[in-house]
């Protein structure tokens, strides 16, 4: 059972099917939710859906357009989220990525640099910002820990030829996440969770859709367990699972 109400989450890169499904689930529990991605129009429409999922629970839903690949903008936006939600974050979910076809013989330096900025530098800045006094550590005495969640896949270990730039960037970003998973519990009282999806996530009804990689199923299988496990942890990080793969 995940705790209801009075908890704060910021989701960076919220347009994807999975992160939207995550936001809708948390809205149904009455969490306060901040949504961040670059398109104001998409954010506004997602915020509407998230509001509807609240079913009168009354949590806050705020959104702001920002480029997570720009460190100054990302930090300022996360500061804004804390201010608008009215408290430090219980969970920070970093999900921003540029999913675009590319081959290793054709990638331009600019493309690779852009992917590294969004995936690896963005994860780095988000994790450092969270560890710098922005995580809600007030409930640790009751066994409830803040979590830094970084969405990923298996491209770091099994790079795909048609996703050359993204595979390279995810290898870097997932290393950043694994290093945070070692450092943050001691340094900042934050646990790190990596929901990893090994297949393609496609909208129901679209070509390539599969039940196995349905967004709601992914949230249930590899996101929700992190929310359940971050509660009732008198022993802190002992027994905490960092990576969950579907
Ligand atoms: N989809 C899959 O099949 C799949 C499979 C395995 C793993 N994953 C992982 O899941 C994560 C999300 O991927 P996805 O496929 O779901 O991608 P997606 O549908 O393209 O969603 C990524 C989101 O990030 C936002 N975004 C992109 N660049 C951004 C930036 N610079 N600043 C802020 N927001 C930005 C995009 O919105 P804007 O364009 O409006 O900014 C979009 O909402 C990635 O870590 C990916 O590796 C996905």
TrEMBL record:
Signal peptide start-end: none
Species assigned in the record: Aspergillus carbonarius (strain ITEM 5010)
InterPro entries: NAD(P)-bd_dom_sf (IPR036291), SDR_fam (IPR002347)
Name the record gives this protein: NAD(P)-binding protein
SUPFAM superfamilies listed in its UniProt record: NAD(P)-binding Rossmann-fold domains
């Amino acid at each position: 059972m995940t705790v209801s109400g009075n908890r704060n989450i910021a989701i960076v890169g919220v347009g994807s099917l999975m992160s939207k499904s995550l936001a809708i689930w948390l809205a149904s529990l009455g969490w306060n939710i901040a949504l961040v991605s670059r398109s104001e129009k998409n954010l506004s429409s997602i915020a509407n859906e998230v509001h509807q999922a609240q079913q009168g629970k009354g949590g806050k839903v705020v959104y702001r357009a920002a480029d997570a690949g720009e460190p100054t903008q990302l930090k300022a936006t996360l500061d804004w989220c804390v201010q608008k939600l009215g408290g430090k974050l219980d969970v920070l979910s970093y999900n921003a990525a540029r999913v675009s076809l590319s081959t290793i013989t054709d990638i331009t330096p600019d493309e690779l640099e852009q992917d590294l900025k969004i995936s690896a530098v963005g994860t780095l800045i988000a994790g450092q910002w969270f560890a710098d006094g922005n995580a809600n550590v007030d409930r640790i005495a009751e066994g409830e820990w803040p979590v830094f969640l970084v969405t990923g896949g298996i491209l770091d270990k099994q790079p795909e030829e048609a996703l050359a730039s993204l595979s390279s960037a995810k290898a870097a970003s997932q290393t950043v996440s694994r290093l945070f998973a070692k450092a943050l519990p001691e340094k900042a009282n934050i646990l790190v969770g990596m929901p990893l999806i090994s297949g393609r996530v496609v909208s129901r009804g679209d070509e390539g859709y599969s039940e196995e990689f349905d967004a709601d199923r992914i949230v249930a299988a590899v996101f929700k367990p992190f929310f359940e496990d971050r509660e009732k942890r008198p022993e802190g990080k002992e027994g905490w699972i960092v990576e969950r793969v579907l």
